[in-house]
Design brief:
This protein is α+β, with helices and mostly antiparallel strands and 157 residues long. It contains four helices and nine strands, in the order ββαββββαββααβ. Helix 3 crosses helix 4.
Length: 157
């Protein structure tokens, strides 16, 4: 049941934004959440796809994708992107980033980050396997530098 104030034809639900410390903890939480990446297609339509990611020490979101994927092609043409990371379990929380993606094809870096990302999602025992699989020619390293962050913690409380 939604409780809130009516504003025109929509209901406004008050929520509590996360602190910077809470955002960092949420993004690094275990088990990890999958990010939902939104990019812009050539005709202007949105494209959304799940991604595994890690948070770098400088606050950028880092993930891999293939250069031939829809998201890889979209980011090459238009670096604008949004990433939503949410916890689908009660009491429900999320972080939404808007920003510009920076792409690297440096295979040393692609593999290093692919190993780190694979280890986060599949465990340390399989990190090298995923690093090798996702750290080869044709794969991209993407850094999403947030220009805007929106978050909410414990929406159902």
């Amino acid at each position: 049941m939604c409780t809130g104030r009516m504003a025109g034809n929509r209901t406004e639900v008050p929520y509590r934004p996360m602190t910077d410390t809470q955002v960092t903890a949420f993004l690094a939480s275990e088990p990890p959440h999958t990010g939902k990446l939104a990019t812009v297609r050539a005709d202007g339509r949105p494209h959304v796809a799940p991604v595994w990611y890690v948070l770098d020490d400088d606050g950028t979101i880092v993930f891999n994708t293939g250069e031939a994927t829809v998201k890889g092609r979209n980011l090459r043409r238009d670096p604008r992107a949004s990433l939503c990371v949410d916890d689908e379990r009660p009491p429900f929380s999320y972080v939404l980033f808007d920003g510009l993606a920076e792409i690297s094809e440096d295979l040393t870096e692609v593999r290093r980050w692919a190993t780190r990302i694979g280890g986060r999602y599949m465990g340390a025992a399989r990190a090298e396997e995923f690093g090798a699989r996702n750290g080869m020619a044709g794969e991209l390293l993407v850094r999403l530098r947030p220009s805007r962050v929106v978050s909410a913690v414990d929406l159902a409380d």
